[in-house]
Write the structure tokens for this entry.
Amino acid sequence: MKNRLSAIKLLVTLLLSIGACLSYAQTANEGRTELFSKKNSLNSPQSSDLLSTNFGVLSNGRDIIIRQTAAANLGCTYVREAQILKDWNGTNNTYIDKWIDAGKKILLNINNDTTPSAFPKDLVTYEAQLRSVLTVYHPEVAVIENEEANQYDSTKENNSQYHMGSLADYINELTVAVKVCKEKGVPVTNGGLTPIVIASLWNYYNTNNKQDSCTWLNNQMGGVSHDSERIARADSLITAYRQLDLSYVNLHWYEPNADKTRMTGVLNVMINYLQQQTGKEIITNETGVKTNDSSFVTMLMNQWDSANVKYCIFFDANGIDNFGAYPLTSAAGILLSNGIAFRDYSAGINSCPQDINVTPAGPVSVCQGNTVTLTAANGFTNYKWSNGDTTRNTSVNKTGNYYVTSINIGCTAVSNIVIITVNPLPAKPTITTNISPNNVCPNKTVRLTSSSGVTFLWTPGDSTTKVIIVSKAGSYRVTITDLNGCANTSAPAVVTYQKCNAPTNLRVTDITQTRATLNWDTSACSIGYQLQYRMKGTVVWTVVQIHAESSTYRNLYNLTPATTYQWKMLSACKTIPDTVTSNYVTGPEFTTLAKFAAAKMANENVKGINAFEAKVFPNPATSIATVKMSYVTNDLKIILTDLSGKILWHNDKINDVNISIPVSNLANGTYIIIVKDKEHNQTLKLVKE
């Protein structure tokens, strides 16, 4: 008994973590701890005297002799039988008599009529018939009706066990039954709550703001109905059972989970929830497994036994898969593998006095691609794991319940069950960018955004946000983790930056004795330029910063006549936080005009290289029109008018050969540009589009 109680404490820990995600396991456990039993063990019983539960069998669909054979082979003292009140002859039931003659103890289902049927409304007649049955027989427990929460629906299949009528009618029937049973000294319980009560448990978690427990329950059961009508039915029955003087509350339960790979881990929670809500002990007159893997029989029996239920009746179908439950015995009553496991557990056959513990004890949650090594206790001559391995250690990489047995001289030791959950990896994350990551200009940054995750880790670097901003070339990856702590890493997002290119096509125009225009073609990615010039033969450069990326020329003033100048330029592509520039490129040398040559050209009125001439471009224009002059005089003026002669814009202070006229706010049409000084007057036509 001491060994079993120590194992009990272990299972509490096991059950508390079943199916829970790593990131919310602690709070989820807090939400469910109150609903777990303090006694739990997964070790095989030492002897039948140690069992806290009376196991029995519901062996239906066969001749009574075969049913008795099956019960005998299973080693059962307790059986489930039924009495239909409308078939009661007032004196005896042959089946009940045969069970009594065989020395069996009976949990007796007492149904008003064969199902599907309505709950009785003539409660006077019902009471008299029930009292008559209990005057003749004194069962271990009187079970009133069967699966009372299930409602008959003629449009659906598999309704043969269901009822018609309201739950209020059933509660009235049960109230009368409790009265009669108490008079006769017969323990009484309800017909059997089906897993509809899971909806009530979910609603309990939800209304108490235990969303982590809602998620846990949904994951363990493979989905939980949130239907308000189901919740209301379950809650109304639970309320009635709390108020009625029932001896027990009867729960029907089947394992394993939907894909038959593991126990749901919910039974002990449900038992304690019902005990908490009703204040009654829990029993079951119908439970079973939906697989022919006999290990689940052992595990299910252990869960009922560990919960200290007084009665546990296993469903033994007629040698076939019935209602999803696999049989314990064949059609002839011979033990099948599930039946052998039932017999051995209930009788404590071949149990060893020593424990064969497995470490880690679990539950263990790992991510896909990882394995868990389970190690059995030393000192046993042989080992057989539930996955087929026969060594002391076994490596596990699939979700399931794992245990090991060892057959030694005269006994078989069965270990604790270790629950392994292998969580899938999150989907491979993807990285999106706000701009093309290829050949990015040095002054631009790239925003990298990861797809969804719980946590993020970028490389290179150690950023832990969903979005990062990068300004350097590199191959960037992000690793995300999910709620289970499982991680996956993205494909690389490659960011490349282009170099800073120098301006091209450097040239000099409009050279006078004191002025020259330096021209160039812009370079991609430039945000400005640096221009340096000097007299040839000198050392010191004059530096000019040009902050407009679209600039294509710069006028130099106050130059010395008849002097040769040198100049060079570079592009600036980035200034903050670091500076990125191109190399310098050298422009062609130029020589300013001598004074006498300039005076001569100023007096020329014929068309030539320095004749007075104005041109406008682009034409048509949309936003800026530029007037380019052959040269500038002191009294030069430019006027923009409409066709009626109305002045729309003018500039009387011109000191550059290139004059910009804003036209973006003008209506589309034709306009006149007048360029004049004291000696010249030229008219240009401009089209605005």
Confidence is low (pLDDT under 50) at residues 1-50, 597-609. DSSP finds 13 helices and 43 strands in the chain. The first strand starts at residue 54 and ends at 59.
